[in-house]
Design brief:
Length: 247
C-alpha cells in the first residue's frame, strides 16, 4: 500500500505534519461539507457560514450549530484519529493541523493540535468578547445572549471572509516548513488559505502524501495519493511505519 518512495522516507522523518479535513471524522459519524453526503447539500454555506448570515438570522444559524453540537456530543474518535496520536510515539515531532472544529484529535490524544477553523466547544460574545462554554449556553430560546452585556453569543469558529487565528496559522506555517513528511487527510483542498499548506510544505522539502477515497483539488500537487478511508488507511500506515523503523 505504501510506495517504495514513501517507505524510504520513513526512517529519516524528524517532523511529521498531518493536515486534516472533514473526511477525517466521517467514520466517527460527522458529516463532511461537500460531496454527495455533505451538509452543504442541505444547507447553503452563504446562508449559514458567514458573519453577515449570522447577523441576518442568528436563530437560524444557532439552530444549525445547536444540531451539530448535539451530534458532536455523541461521537468518538475513530481508528484514524487514534493512529495519528500513535505516530507521536514513532517520530520526534508530530503536528496535527486541522480544519475540523470537532475536538476529536485532542480527544484521541494528539498533543500538538493547531485548529485553523476554531472549535465548537467554545463560544464568545460578539460585543465584549467574553468566552462562553457550551455548558453556559441556553439554546432553548433561539440565539443566546451574553450575561455580562446582552450581546449576541456566537460559536468560536471561522466563517467565510474571516481571518484565521494568527497563532494557530503561524505555528502551522512553521511546522509545514520543518516537516519531512506531510499527510493531507480527508480534505477537498478547496478552502483557502488552509489549502496552501501542502504546497508550502512540499516547496520546503517535505514528501507529501494525500489520503482520501477520491482525488481532490490537491491531487496534482502531491507526491502520491493513497485512495481509501482514513480510518482504514492510517492504522495500516502506522503498522508499516513501525516495520520500516525497526529495520
Ligand atoms: C474522506 C472520507 C474518509 C470523505 N476518509 N477522507 C476565491 C478563491 C480563493 C479563495 C477565496 C475565493 N473567494 C473567497 C475566498 C476565501 C475563502 C475560500 O477559501 N473560499 C473558497 C471556498 C472559494 N476563505 C475564507 O474566507 C477564509 N478566510 C480568509 O480567506 O480570510 C482572508 C479574507 C478576509 C476577508 C475577506 C477575504 C479574505 C476562511 C475560511 C473558513 C472556512 N470555514 C468553514 C466552516 C467552519 C465552521 C463550521 O464548521 O461550521 O470550514 S467552511 C468548511 O470548509 C469548514 C471546513 O473546515 C472547510 C474545508 O472543508 P474540508 O474539511 O476540506 O471538507 P470537504 O467536505 O470539502 O471535504 C471532505 C473530504 O473528505 C472529501 O475530499 C472527501 O472525499 C473526503 N472523505 N470520507 C478520508 N472516510
Ligand atoms: Zn458580552
Amino acid at each position: 500500500m505504501l510506495s517504495d518512495a514513501f517507505r524510504a522516507r520513513i526512517p529519516g522523518v524528524r517532523c511529521l505534519v498531518a493536515f486534516t479535513g472533514a473526511g477525517m471524522s466521517a467514520e466517527s459519524g460527522v458529516s463532511t461539507f461537500r460531496g454527495e453526503d455533505g451538509i452543504w447539500q442541505k444547507f447553503k454555506p452563504e446562508e449559514l457560514a458567514s458573519f453577515d448570515a449570522f447577523i441576518r438570522n442568528p436563530s437560524l444559524v444557532w439552530e444549525w450549530y445547536a444540531h451539530r453540537k448535539k451530534v458532536l456530543s455523541s461521537v468518538e474518535p475513530n481508528p484514524g484519529h487514534l493512529a495519528l496520536a500513535n505516530m507521536e510515539t514513532l517520530f520526534p515531532e508530530v503536528h496535527v493541523i486541522t480544519q475540523n472544529i470537532d475536538n476529536l484529535h485532542r480527544r484521541a490524544g494528539s498533543q500538538r493540535v493547531h485548529e485553523l477553523h476554531g472549535n465548537l466547544q467554545r463560544n464568545y460574545c460578539i460585543d465584549c468578547r467574553n468566552p462562553v462554554s457550551n455548558e453556559g449556553l441556553d439554546l432553548d430560546a433561539g440565539a443566546p445572549r451574553c450575561r455580562q452585556c446582552g450581546g449576541l453569543i456566537r460559536p468560536d469558529v471561522i466563517w467565510f471572509g474571516e481571518l484565521l487565528p494568527l497563532d494557530a496559522w503561524d505555528r502551522s506555517i512553521e511546522a509545514c516548513r520543518r516537516a519531512d513528511l506531510f499527510l493531507s487527510i480527508g480534505t477537498s483542498g478547496v478552502v483557502y488559505p488552509a489549502a496552501t499548506l501542502p504546497g508550502i510544505s512540499r516547496g520546503a522539502g517535505a514528501y507529501v502524501v494525500e489520503i482520501n477515497p477520491e482525488y481532490t483539488a490537491l491531487s496534482d500537487f502531491v507526491d502520491e495519493t493513497i485512495l481509501g478511508k482514513s480510518g482504514e488507511i492510517l492504522p495500516e500506515v502506522v503498522r508499516l511505519m513501525k516495520i520500516e523503523l525497526r529495520k
